[in-house]
Structures are given as structure tokens and as C-alpha cells.
Write a structure and sequence with these properties.
mainly alpha; Rhodanese domain-containing protein
Length: 71
């Protein structure tokens, strides 16, 4: 019997833990004019309900490591 590893087993271990930002804070930041340096990345695949944020970039977590250079 083979034990299948999770998809993230091949990635390097995290070096830091990102803080969770509440939804209302993100919405406040997105509503400010001149916040061109803010990039919201949606790491979900197709498991989201209610849509996505306009202007966000969808890169599923499984492909983020390989696509990080385009950011």
C-alpha cells in the first residue's frame, strides 16, 4: 500500500507566518485612491462562494510557488 503525500509536501517549509487581515480592512484599503501597490491574490481554486474581488489575481495555492516570479 502506497501512502500518497499531500501536494504541498514538495515545497520548502515556510520561513514566516503572514498575519490574517480582516475582510473589512482589505475592503477599506481597496477603496482608497492611490493604493496601486496593493495586490490581492486569491489562492483558492474553484471552491469560493460569492465571487471574487474585482482586480484580484487568482493563483491557486498549488501553483503559487511556480508562478511567484510573475509577481
Amino acid at each position: 500500500m502506497t501512502t500518497e503525500k499531500p501536494w504541498h509536501a514538495e515545497f520548502p517549509e515556510p520561513k514566516a507566518e503572514a498575519a490574517i487581515m480582516p475582510r473589512n480592512r482589505v475592503m477599506q484599503m481597496l477603496s482608497l485612491r492611490g493604493v496601486a501597490s496593493l495586490l490581492v491574490i486569491d489562492l483558492r481554486r474553484m471552491d469560493f462562494e460569492g465571487g471574487c474581488l474585482r482586480g484580484s489575481l487568482n493563483i491557486p495555492a498549488q501553483g503559487f510557488w511556480w508562478n511567484r516570479g510573475m509577481l
